[in-house]
Amino acid sequence: AEMFAVITHETDTADKAVTIYAEDAGLDLINEIAPAYTADATHNIAWYINYFLGDSDFEIGTNEIPEKERTLSWEGTSTVTERIRSIATQFDNAEISYSFEVANLAITHKYINIWEKRGTDAGQELRLDRDINSFHVVTSIEDLYTGLIVKGATPEGEDAPITLEGYEYDDGDI
Q1: Contact at 8 Å (CB) between 60 and 50?
Q2: Residue 150: helix, strand or coil by DSSP?
Q3: Do 50 and 113 contact (CB within 8 A), yes or no?
Q4: Residue 108: enclosing H or E segment and its boundaries?
Q5: N or C end of the chain, less CB within 10 A?
Q6: Would you put residue 16 in left (φ > 0), alpha (ψ -120 to 50) or beta?
Q7: Could you tell me which residue, 45 or 174, shows the higher pLDDT?
Q8: What residue ranges in 25-85 does DSSP mark as E strands?
Q9: At what angle do helices 80-90 and 45-53 cross, to 10 degrees?
Q10: 47-58, pLDDT tens digit by residue?
């Protein structure tokens, strides 16, 4: 079974069309933070992914490159989703997908699949006004930040760094 998280939903009543853009359903990992890390030994891709999954319900499903090993490090923090993409990139641009087992409308297993390479590059180039008549632009939540780690500098003559402690934000929606 394939499951997706809906990113953008668009309804056009004139054309009687509904358009949905969705990503692999691993998006719940964007709310988890992966800290800076330096490995002290070589590990395979599954080891790194499991290390950063923490207490999530995800487990490794398909793994087409179990034998490859690397010694990796990251200086800054990122979301776990971004870290998993970074791990895959450093393992010769491996590709990641998410899949689920469902029983009686309940998710029983969540998998992260590791692929050596999916699809092919057809070398097809499409040009506006030659192959494509028009573009339709839609705004979405793809770049939505759901959590931030704020680190500030220490002002001259003070002992404590700048923080957002006590700051309140209200734009009418949030």
Answers
A1: yes
A2: coil
A3: no
A4: strand 106-115
A5: C
A6: left
A7: 45
A8: 33-34, 37-38, 43-44, 58-63, 69-70, 73-74, 78-79
A9: 170
A10: 999 999 988 889
Please give the single-letter amino acid code of residue 89. Answer: T
Exposure of 44 by Cβ count < 10 A (0-12 exposed, 13-18 middle, 19+ buried)?
Answer: middle
Which tens digits make up the pLDDT trace of 55-113?
A: 888 999 999 999 999 999 999 999 899 999 999 999 999 999 888 888 887 888 999 99
**What values do phi and psi take at 37, rounded to 5?**
-160, 140
- Rounded to whole angstroms, the Cα distance separating 124 from 137 reads 22
Residue 147 neighbours by CB under 8 Å, 6+ apart: 31, 33
Residue 19 has pLDDT above 90, yes or no: no
Neighbours of 5 (CB within 10 A): 14
For the chain, give the mean pLDDT: 84
Q: Which residues of 123-159 are buried (b: 16+ CB within 10 A; e: fewer)?
A: eeeeeeeeeeeeeeeeeeeeeeeeeeeeeeeeeeeee
